[in-house]
Amino acid sequence: MNLLSVSHLHVNFQVKQHSLPALIDVSFTLNRGERIAIVGESGAGKSVLGFSIVNLISKPGYIKSGSVKLDNKELTKMNLRQLQEVRGKRIAMIFQDPMMTLNPVLTIGQQLVETIRSHTKINYKDARNITIEKLHNVQISSPEKRFDQYPHELSGGMRQRVIIASVLLLNPDIIIADEPTTALDVTIQAEILQLLLAICRDNGVALVLISHDLGVVSKVAERTLVMYAGQIVEEGPTLEIINDPQHPYTQGLLNALPQMTLPGQRLNQIKGSMPSLTERPTGCAFHPRCPYATDKCRQESPSFIYSGVSSVACFMIEDMIDETDRDEDEQL
Question: Is the pLDDT of residue 30 over 90?
Answer without folding.
Answer: yes
